[in-house]
Amino acid sequence: MKKTDTQTGTIYAGFSYFIWGLLPIYWKLLEHVNALEILANRIFWSFTFMLIVLFFTKKWGLLVRTLKGFAQNQRQIYALAIASLIISGNWFIYIWAVNSGHMIEASLGYYINPLVSILLGMLVLKEKLTIYQYGSFILAAIGVLIMTFSHGSFPWISISLALTFAVYGLAKKLINVDSAVGLTLETFVVSPIAAIYVIFLFVQGSNSFLTASVGTDLLLIGAGVATAVPLLYFAKGAQKIPLSLLGFLQYIAPTLTLILGVFVYQEHFTKTQLLAFLFIWSALTIYSLSKSKLLPKKEFKNEKQATL
Questions:
Q1: Number of Cβ within a 10 Å radius of residue 126
Q2: Rg of the chain, C-alpha, whole Å
Q3: What are phi and psi of 299, to 5 degrees?
Q4: pLDDT digits over 76-122, tens only?
Q5: In angstroms, rounded to a whole number, what is the distance separating the alpha carbons of residues 214 and 199?
Q6: Rounded to whole angstroms, how far apart are CA atoms 22 and 117?
Q7: pLDDT averaged over the chain?
Q8: How far apart are CA 11 and CA 88, in angstroms?
Q9: Which residues contact 254 (CB under 8 A, 6 or more apart)?
Q10: What integer is the mean pLDDT of 288-301?
Q11: pLDDT per residue over 46-55, tens digit each?
Q12: Fewest CB within 10 A of the end CB: N or C in the chain?
């Protein structure tokens, strides 16, 4: 891998995570709009924007070939449908959390996400874990338990965001198509549902789009661009840099979101939350070091060894 490729890939991937980290500012500008309406517009305008992207990048032929391949592989069709529904659920939870004053919990969800992906890889793909990855998962679990007991309730926002994005990643692994084509198809699958909901709002007279203000309309339309652009830059970056570096860069987004929640939007950050985050950050440090090969690889070879 060339040095220039690594530098370019780092810029692309870093830029995508930077945008994701600042997206709460965008959703806050729409906090007067129902979260489901924001989601419906985000899906519809993302699909529209991706059609434009496919036109200018001349990928219509690739889209047709992908659809023909799906027709011969039902497994990919199911994976696409699951990915579409799961990422839509993830988007809704995130938008609702940000606009309901739960930005800190949302950031925690994306800190936990890589560790949930480890667990899914072990359970679904039968991947072997190193002793350090087991340790990371245990530390993260302790952090979640601290949050649970301190709040008196399960941190469902964090866990839901982590689970949905991890399952989405797993489904994408099974699909394995061009990123632009994949996002187009994912938004296409759920666009009819989004359109029906928007029509329902118009009939009920409870829609914000085209009734609130020109600024609101532009922000709802722009949600498609805000969704698609970081995903496209992420795909470009991921092709050019090692997975270990990509894994390290992904913490830019939740860190920025956490900073916004605490210092900009004045969400209360307790000492107990700090303790929970310290466990999560420790888990991620160990995980990142194990992925970067700075720690020696040690796998559990058998069930007996795993109990020691």
A1: 7
A2: 20
A3: -105, 150
A4: 888 889 999 999 999 999 999 999 999 999 999 998 888 888 788 77
A5: 19
A6: 23
A7: 87
A8: 27
A9: 21, 107, 108, 109, 110, 111
A10: 63
A11: 999 999 999 9
A12: C
Q: Give the number of other CB atoms < 10 A from CB of residue 293.
A: 10
Residues 6 or more apart whose CB falls under 8 angstroms from that of 247 comprise: 114, 287, 288, 291
* Dihedral sign for Cα atoms in the order 168, 170, 175, 181: positive
Give yes or no for a contact between 261 and 30, defined as CB atoms under 8 angstroms apart.
no
Q: Output the six-digit token pair for 161.
A: 């965001």
- The one-letter code for the residue type at 180 is A
Count of alpha carbons within 13 angstroms of residue 48, beta-carbon side? 16
Helix count and strand count (H, E) for the chain: 13, 0
pTM of the model: 0.87
Q: Cα angle at 106 between 279 and 22, to 5 degrees?
A: 110
Residue 174 structure tokens: 């099974």
Both structure tokens of 23: 């997206």
